[in-house]
Amino acid sequence: MKMLLFASRAALSLTAALAVAVVVLLTASSRSRRPSFLRRYEPTVVATSLPSAAPPAYSRSAPPSPTPTAVVARVPRDCDIFRGEWVPATDGDDDGAAPYYTNATCGEIQEHQNCMKYGRPDLGFLRWRWRPERCELPRFDAAAFMEVVRGRSMAFVGDSLARNHMQSLMCLLSKVENPKDVSTTKDPEFRTVRYESHNFTVAAFRSPYLVTANQSSDPAGGMWDLYLDEPDAAWATAVAGFDYVVVSTANWFNRPTMFHEAGRLVGCHHCLVPGVADLKRTYSLRAALRTALRALTAGAGGAGFDGTVIVRTLSPTSHFEGGEWNKGGDCRRTRPTAARMAGLDLDFHTVQVEEFRRAEAAAAAAASGGAARLLLMDTTAAMVARADGHPSRYGHWAHEKVTLYNDCVHWCLPGPIDVWNEMLLQMLLHHHRSGEFSV
């Protein structure tokens, strides 16, 4: 009997030892399967904060008090996240093979961006990730983003692509929290939402030209009057209380327009009016962006804004193939291309970077305590290669009559546009670390 009891205990001990060994082996195997590039990141401690009181939706909050910290991956200091290439995403949650969300998990996707709903047959366009030249771009961390912006506010100013950007962000953040709509208007182009548990406010202000713009009394003619030295009151009178303003524009400058400055007509684009100089589209884009940035960086003398201006460069205008947008042009590609900036995209991008540098230098020279800070979000080079990321004909049912039947302007959600917010998070983390401003 004693021999049997001893043998039984020995067997139990051996079984327990084997179980521990299996657990150790499985753990090691799991670690070894993680994408190797993740090991290049040193964990960074990001101080989180909690506001002492909830401020009004449009008011900048006072500096929050410290609370516990969180660890988040960030890119190295010497890495330019805006220059790189698209590479296939491999299987594994950390490497981006699966989209962050779907049309079933995010309710912020507009119909014309809902490529899954309308039956886009190729979903391979979702299985690519952006890899900068000198580092790896971490996946978007919704919880980390929320901690960085806790107690703050962010406005997206521009055309429907600015709203597309904001909606991508809202879908990404839906893993953490769904916001409360606190809009003061029923116009969806001027929507404001609030993430109450993080005291974070996000708003959209539609302003395709950034400056005052009035359409002709004959909408069919498509002519617009632009007042290039007047910032659009739709946003200029509303952003003073925000911590961040993400400003963008470009696509609308392709339309027929009349240019006004200092109260007089100075030229046009494709107006075909005798005696009126036909100026380049870059003329109006430059003047409008300069006016907007001057208003944003002038402090009390302008829009009253003293937060951080993030200038996002243009989303490509060149992705229609086989014709213009209203003449059969389409974007039917199914994977990234090797395309580089050229033509109008390059011209517009050059103007935007030059005007950003000009505004940056002017703000540095002024060096006033209430002046806004500027950051450049240079997304164009990455997006030029993603003609496969648009809805094309999959933003509506085939029998529907819509203005933009083949949409090669906006971006599918989920889709390549989500990389804008991966970049945005890294920009905020980088400048938080560098001390250039307090996040």
From TrEMBL:
Does the record's keyword annotation contain DNA repair?
no
Q: How does it sit in the membrane?
A: Single-pass type II membrane protein
Q: Which residues form the Trichome birefringence-like C-terminal domain?
A: 137-427
| Primary subcellular site in the record, as a coarse category | Golgi
Organism domain of life: Eukaryota
List where in the cell it is found.
Golgi apparatus membrane
Output the Gene Ontology cellular-component terms: Golgi membrane
Output the Gene Ontology terms for molecular function: xylan O-acetyltransferase activity
Q: Where is the Trichome birefringence-like N-terminal domain?
A: 78-136
Keyword vocabulary terms for this entry: Disulfide bond, Glycoprotein, Golgi apparatus, Membrane, Signal-anchor, Transferase, Transmembrane, Transmembrane helix
Family recorded in the similarity comment: Belongs to the PC-esterase family. TBL subfamily.
Query: Can you name this protein?
Result: Uncharacterized protein
Q: What organism does this protein naturally occur in?
A: Oryza glaberrima
